[in-house]
């Protein structure tokens, strides 16, 4: 087969020149276009990486905005606090804890209050509470505290089973209540 092609090219010099010219043009095209193709692939990859990075940055910006919103919400809660400034020591908070527990049929085993912590514009009043109750009662109790009008921050919640038969739980809760300094 190659013999026939060789013979045909030898007999037809103009066809040989044409085929060689096409071959040379094809090689020149590849020689010029190949680096451009590589450059386009690299550029496309970089654009892809930049778009991916841009998406990550937008995601981080959204997370930062959510955290800022949480801080604004906490400051608004502190500003709208029922007392504004704490009066009568921690008694109103302990009363709130006891009343919320009573409404939800949760037993308060102990309430420990600690010395207030002075922060920039407000005071933090930390508490440790030991409770006994059922899971759904606990959820309602926490909801009452959170929606009480006080700026309440739940810091630690530990739940363990007390009695499997009666569904009673031992609950240890650390929380802080914040008040604006007057």
Would you write up a description of this structure?
The protein has helices at residues 2-11, 13-79, 91-103, 135-146, and strands spanning 107-113, 117-118, 122-133, 151-163, 168-180. With 182 residues, it is an alpha+beta fold. It folds into two domains: 2-77; 91-180, Ribosomal protein S6/Translation elongation factor EF1B (Alpha-Beta Plaits, 2-Layer Sandwich). Strands 1, 2, 3, 4 and 5 form a five-stranded antiparallel sheet that branches. Helix 3 (91-103) packs antiparallel against helix 4 (135-146). The protein is elongated, with a radius of gyration of 38 Å. Residues 82-87 have low confidence and may be disordered.
Blueprint (SSEs and pairs):
Layout (H helix, E strand, L loop, with lengths): L1 H10 L1 H67 L11 H13 L3 E7 L3 E2 L3 E12 L1 H12 L4 E13 L4 E13 L2
Helix pairs in contact: 3-4
């Amino acid at each position: 087969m190659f013999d026939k092609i060789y013979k045909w090219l030898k007999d037809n010099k103009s066809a040989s020149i044409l085929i060689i010219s096409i071959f040379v043009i094809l090689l020149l095209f590849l020689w010029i276009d190949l680096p451009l193709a590589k450059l386009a692939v690299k550029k496309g990859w970089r654009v892809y990486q930049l778009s991916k990075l841009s998406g990550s940055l937008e995601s981080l910006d959204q997370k930062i905005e959510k955290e800022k919103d949480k801080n604004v919400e906490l400051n608004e809660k502190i500003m709208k606090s029922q007392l504004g400034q704490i009066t009568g020591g921690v008694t109103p908070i302990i009363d709130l804890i006891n009343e919320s527990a009573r409404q939800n049929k949760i037993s308060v085993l102990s309430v420990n209050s600690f010395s207030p912590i002075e922060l920039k514009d407000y005071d933090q009043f930390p508490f440790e509470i030991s409770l006994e109750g059922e899971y759904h009662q606990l959820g309602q109790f926490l909801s009452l505290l959170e929606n009480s009008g006080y700026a309440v921050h739940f810091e630690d919640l530990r739940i363990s089973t007390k009695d499997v038969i009666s569904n009673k739980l031992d609950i240890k809760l650390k929380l802080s209540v914040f008040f604006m300094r007057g």
